[in-house]
Amino acid sequence: MKGKENLEQKLLIAKLTDKIKECKTKNRIVNTEFLNMHQKNIVQKELNRLKEKNYIFFGGYENASSEILVIYPQKFPAEIIQENLKNIIKAIEIKLPKELIGKYEHKNYLSAVMLQGLERERIGDIIVHSDEAYILVLRENARYLKDSLQSLTRFKKSTIEIIDYEDIKIKPQEFIEFNIKVASNRLDAIVAEIVKTSRNKAEEYIDNKKVSINYQEELKYAKAVKKNDVIVIRGKGKFIIYEIGEKNQKGKIIINIKKYK
Q1: Environment class of residue 93 by beta-carbon count within 10 Å: exposed (0-12), middle (13-18) or buried (19+)?
Q2: Residue 5: its pLDDT value, please?
Q3: 30-54 pLDDT, tens per residue?
Q4: Residue 4 has what pLDDT?
Q5: Does residue 12 sit in helix, strand or coil?
Q6: How far apart are CA 238 and CA 187, in angstroms?
Q7: 223 and 229 Cβ atoms separated by less than 8 Å
Q8: Overall average pLDDT of the 221-231 stretch
Q9: Average pLDDT over residues 135-152
Q10: Angle at 49 (CA atoms; ends 31, 15), nearest 5 degrees
Q11: Residue 96 gets which letter from DSSP?
């Protein structure tokens, strides 16, 4: 497993190197496919190492989970970069008929997209409302995705259009809030309480690389978790450490956690 991950990391960095070279030799704006948070971390570290400055990450809206990397020549003005983004990312707008309002969730849209044979990296975030949804996609795949989705039985009566990302309706992030009590702010203790399992089972999650802090895999059981850390437990969800209280009389720390819906 480790060898596979190292290979994927090397391929990601190799693609980045090619993009940087293309930007500089051809003096033009270039972009990657959509990157998840883990991939973005890897790319960011390499950009820092190379001391690159002329780039932005963008996913169609602020705080998007999946973002492309846009690299641009040094002398390009900001307005040209901004205008070019519209030619890289588009959105598929799906408006549901009355009888389907409130019946489709994120998984329904994602499964429909995956049926079309596009690689996951070609698709960005999917923003779901009760009566409509927006799928961020690379411009060159937008027409194909629109036509393919329109042919599906589940969207037969829906109105599907290609729109600019600026026209999507952003949905405020929703959370499920709860408290846990732990003896310390060690990662294994917190994972065990979040998942409602034993400390040994929590260690298995960590050993199997199913746990990350701020989108970086963490293998240390005793890693100290801090306020505002984002913990992702594969198969269980994404959580933000919102507040860490003082120890109570029983020696327990009360931690307020928000789980991303």
Answers
A1: buried
A2: 63
A3: 999 999 888 998 999 999 999 999 9
A4: 61
A5: helix
A6: 14
A7: no
A8: 95
A9: 97
A10: 35
A11: -
Number of neighbours of residue 193 by Cβ within 10 angstroms: 19
* Phi then psi dihedrals of residue 40, to 5 deg: -60, -40
253, two tokens? 């720390």
- Per-residue confidence at 2, pLDDT binned at 50, 70, 90? low
**Nearest alpha carbon to residue 137 among 177, 181, 91:** 91
Per-residue confidence (pLDDT) for residue 116, from 0 to 100:
93
Residue with tokens 């169609």: 60
Residue ranges of domains in the chain, CATH in brackets:
19-85 (3.30.1370), 89-167 (3.30.70.330), 175-260 (3.10.290.10)
Give the tokens for residue 235: 């198969």
Sign of CA dihedral 62, 63, 68, 71: positive
Pick left, alpha or beta for residue 228 (phi over 0 → left; psi -120 to 50 → alpha; otherwise beta): left
Six token digits for residue 180? 């846990």
- Please determine, for residue 201, whether its predicted confidence score (pLDDT) is greater than 80: yes
49: which 2 tokens? 């190492």
Mean pLDDT confidence for 230-234? 92
Reading the block at residue 197, the tokens are: 């399992």
Query: pTM higher than 0.85 for the full model?
Result: no
d(C-alpha 7, C-alpha 13), whole Å: 10
Residue 215, pLDDT score: 79
For 137-177, the DSSP string reads: EEHHHHHHHHHHHHTSGGGTTSEEEEEEGGG--PPPP-EEE
Residue written as token pair 């729109």: 163
DSSP 8-class letter at 100: G
| Strand partners for 135 | 92, 126
